[in-house]
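Document type: protein sequence-to-structure record

Subject area: structural biology

Format: plain text, a pair of labelled lines:
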Amino acid sequence: MKGKKNMKIMVMSDVESKYIWDHYQPGMLSGLDLVISCGDLHPQYLSFVETFANVPLLYIHGNHDEKYKVMPPEGCECIEDSVYVHNGIRILGLGGSMRYRAGAFQYSEREMAKRIRKLRLRLKLCGGFDILVTHAPMRGFHDGEDLCHTGFEVFRELIDEFQPKLFLHGHVHMNYGMRTPRQDVYGKTVVINAYRTHTFDFEETIAAAAPEQSIIVR
């Protein structure tokens, strides 16, 4: 992997940051190299962040993002079912949650597996991927017990096979009282919950993370 050293990434999901949206000050988003949305954020918020950060903003859909069909975020790049390459870093996007009601951007386990099968050739040509971006977590790791917040087993299989550097997800709010960690490690993959907003250095995060360094954010 020939990625940019010290790449600063801001991830966000589920809840708009009042600190950014309501109390923005010039320079607040300076120094970023990339912004990634893991879903369930207002499209105008994404456009706002992209405008003032002035760097690429990548996004996938959450289970509450039906409005994106008629009002997609301006100036932002949807990476659903694709591999986006930024400074040599290969980023795979797979939005949506487990299907629990009628509506868009919800999938059964079988439907999500079908989406991934369609990407097999692309992943082979790319030699894999470095960052997996999803809305839902993987099954049995940071997910919930109810159907809505159950993760996908196929995400675990995908990570086991390709061992990406990072897995970024949202959907599991960190104020649910489940003591969900902001950052954790699964095998060789650093897992980050993008709830609200979190900024990190790509190289430092993948180099320094270890299971005992998991961070609990309440």
The mean pLDDT is 89. The CA atoms of residues 66 and 103 lie 8 Å apart.
